[in-house]
Amino acid sequence: MTGLPLETVAWTHVVAAYAMAVFVVVHVYMATTGATVTAYLKAMITGYEWVEVDDTR
What we know:
Oligomer: single chain
């Protein structure tokens, strides 16, 4: 038998799967934290975002 033990491969697979799931959940959450739920998604799709600048310094 050559290569890594099956248990090591299985645990690596599980850890990688959980990491990818957390990555997706966090990114979906972060994409919906704008002024509206779709504000950041619209900016990603259209390529621009209107930003109001306050020049009262």
